[in-house]
Design a protein that fits this description.
This protein is an alpha/beta fold. Helix content is 38%, strand content 13%. Helix 3 packs parallel to helix 4. Residues 88-472 form the Receptor ligand binding region domain.
């Protein structure tokens, strides 16, 4: 009997030990489980590269509203393919190709890249930043390099609100960020954004120029419409401030909602129709203007002179014959244009068959030629916004006609292939070159003649601190050629 009790006791101990061991393994598996992955698209070339540079561009114009029936947060999907933003992506890749082929810049270093589509949204921008910092597409940060190569800096993220969101995180780790389209003056505050610089003038100079323009033509009664973000909010406050000393009066001030609302768009339309102002400043990105432009056409609002911000004055999205009766004669200040050798040929060198996993190129092809690529599940031409000017939801954007692969890019007329007005596109190129010249200057340092004390030491690629790269950027001749704050 005593022997049986002893066996039962040992069996119980074994059972309890097995339970504890299983529980420990479950806990271990729980802590190691991938909690979620971001749904990000883009381009990566980091294999066997010493340094990489990150990039963020609006390859789409918006994210699809979240399904409220799903309680667990999920990474949003995007819609509204943006040919202009896609061209910016490709321009960054072309610039890397150009730099890597040169012998006078970083001759012993091949630069790689990691580029993401941020869908012109803050959530996607932050997802991209976390991937740069964490090392993989997890939504729990580990703050290590994202590709195995050293992250030398980031180009982006597009609009001012996007760059602000990105810089709040990147600045914590002294990661250099170069903006190509962010004009919000507060980004020049080195206390808040110590590692952010940009290759485009800020909105103070732009708003002042608009006031001078209005005064020059003797237009005192002005309507103001802005986007509902940092870009638009700063503009309306600054314009009203400058109006006070220029004998100009704001007839009204309205806001384009960042999240589509038929009621809010209708309120803007009602204000325009009721106002006696015939000159209206429209300060917003071309990606924010879509619903308002459609509503203006729908209500046949003509006879206005529009003053455009730099974000849409040269946008091909509005430079269409069907919009001329409504927006013809628009005046605005544009970013200086430039020619980029070899870019046109590079942009034409694109085809979905080259890489079946290249989702962005497949969607580009489908959207451009209005056909469905065989075996593709990538939707296009969808619009989940509810009841845009009474059209209802356009949830199905797949064409019944299949792409053959024989479609001719030469027959297209869209923003992606238009290289006649390279403005923000050139800013992208300048941003990449600014980082490359800073790294080149760092690589040519001679020990004993370096800028760092004590001992006039140097920093070396890839073993350098982020602040040392920032120093080289500020002291570079290339940077002094780039227009910063006036």
């Amino acid at each position: 009997m005593a022997g049986q009790k002893k066996v039962l006791f040992l069996g119980l101990l074994a059972f309890l030990w097995a339970g504890v061991d299983t529980e420990g393994k479950e806990d271990e598996e729980e802590t190691c489980r991938l909690l979620g992955k971001f749904d990000l698209n883009g381009y990566v070339d980091a294999k066997n590269h010493t340094l990489i540079i990150g990039g963020m561009f609006p390859g789409h114009s918006r994210i699809i509203p979240a399904n409220k029936s799903i309680l667990e947060p999920v990474s949003a999907k995007c819609e509204g393919f943006n040919f202009r933003g896609f061209r910016w992506m490709k321009t960054m890749i072309h610039t890397f190709k150009e730099i890597n082929e040169r012998k006078d810049i970083l001759p012993n270093v091949i630069l790689g890249y990691q580029i993401f589509d941020n869908c012109f949204s803050v959530p996607k921008t932050l997802e991209a930043v976390l991937v740069f910092l964490t090392g993989q597409e997890e939504n729990k940060p580990h703050f290590r390099n994202s590709t195995g190569a050293y992250l030398a800096g980031v180009v982006g993220a597009g609009g001012s609100s996007l760059s602000i969101a990105a810089s709040r995180l990147l600045g914590l780790y002294d990661l250099l960020q170069v903006g190509y389209a962010s004009t919000y003056p507060m980004l020049g505050d080195k206390y808040q954004f110590p590692t952010f610089i940009h290759t485009v003038p800020n909105d103070l100079a732009h708003c002042m120029g608009i006031v001078y323009l209005l005064s020059h033509f003797g237009w005192p009664w002005i309507g103001i419409i802005t986007s509902g973000d940092d870009y638009g909010n700063f503009a309306v406050d600054t314009l009203k401030f400058y109006f006070q000393g220029s004998l100009l009066c704001p007839a009204f001030s309205e806001v384009i909602p960042k999240i589509f609302s038929k009621e809010k768009i209708q309120k803007v339309i009602d204000t325009i129709e009721k106002s006696t102002a015939r000159v209206i400043v429209l300060y917003a990105s071309d990606l924010d203007l879509g619903p308002l432009v459609m509503a203006i056409v729908h209500h046949n609002i003509t006879g206005r002179t529009w003053i455009a911000s730099e974000a849409w004055i040269t946008s091909a999205a509005l430079a269409k014959p069907e919009y001329f009766p409504y927006f013809g004669g628009t005046i605005g200040f544009a970013v200086p244009r430039a020619d980029i050798p070899g870019l046109k040929e590079f942009l034409y060198d694109i085809h979905p068959s080259k890489d079946p996993t290249d989702v962005l190129t497949i969607e580009f092809w489908q959207t451009a030629f209005n056909c469905t690529w065989p075996n593709s599940s990538a939707p296009y031409n969808t619009d989940h916004r509810v009841d845009v000017i009474g059209q209802g939801d356009r949830l199905q954007g797949m064409s019944d006609e299949f792409c053959t692969g024989q479609e001719k890019l030469e027959e297209l007329q869209n923003t992606y292939l238009d290289v006649s007005q390279l403005r923000i596109t050139n800013n992208v190129r300048q941003a990449v070159y600014a980082l490359a010249y800073a790294l080149d200057r760092l690589s040519r340092c001679e020990e004993g003649h370096g800028p760092y004390i004590p001992g006039n030491t140097c920093a070396y690629i890839p073993d350098f601190e982020p602040w040392q790269r920032l120093y080289q950027l500020h002291s570079s001749q290339q940077c002094r050629m780039v227009p910063f704050n006036p």
